[in-house]
Amino acid sequence: MSENLSGQVILVTGAGRGIGGATARLLASRGAAVGVFDIAADLANETAEAIKAAGGKALAIVADASDRKAVFEAAASLAATFGPLTGIVNDAIFIRYGPVEDVTEDVLDRMFAVGIKGAFWGVQALLAHRGDKPVSVVNLASPVADLGTANTSSYTSVKGAIVALTRQLAVELGPKGVRVNAVAPGAVPTPGARAIVDEAGYAKRRAQTPLGRLGEEDEIAKAIAFLLGPDASFITGEVLHADGGITVKSM
């Protein structure tokens, strides 16, 4: 039986499409009111409208996750519309792959700003706009934080930081009634991922995965929803690998 998330108010960054979009739709289908946060107005509005058309509660929020003021304003708008926040999913990311010698300052700055600083701002905004109930953070990690993978130095730096931050914040915020966990998806051919990974790359990822297939957006969304829900009430500091076993096989 799917968990009931009725009464939850959850901000999802990067929710216009891909894993973030699938997560926003799933959370809403289980009763949560969702802030559909994305830098692309058309994508944010499309996902929010789809949720509302299905009978769910959603607020489209167009903003940049690297902008602290914008993230706080997004949380304030969501709280004003549906009530105090009970959770955040830090999904927004900017990705570029390439050899370490080719990494440029502007790309690295942007990746760190969205992927690391954005997670900080999301947690701060949740704390600023929570009520008196326990709340939950779910960050998006990656198997690259555990494995050496060629041409992913900047992305690995971001996700390694997210894994460390997840565990640190679980200790710091646990006494305040905040659970902090992460989901590490395996290879999932989202629209954003397909822009930087070709078919040969996905064939390699499929061969490296013990289950012998790629993941689906909805499968990752279900892992995120579990960590936000009541069945995970005693879980914190965990990095849940929804990766088809790629981490186990590669190690």
UniProtKB/TrEMBL annotation:
One Pfam family per UniProt: adh_short_C2
Oxidoreductase in keyword set: yes
Lineage: superkingdom: Bacteria
Keywords: Oxidoreductase
Domain Ketoreductase span(s) in chain numbering: 8-186
GO MF annotation terms: oxidoreductase activity
Family named by the database record: Belongs to the short-chain dehydrogenases/reductases (SDR) family.
Annotated protein name in UniProt: 3-oxoacyl-[acyl-carrier protein] reductase
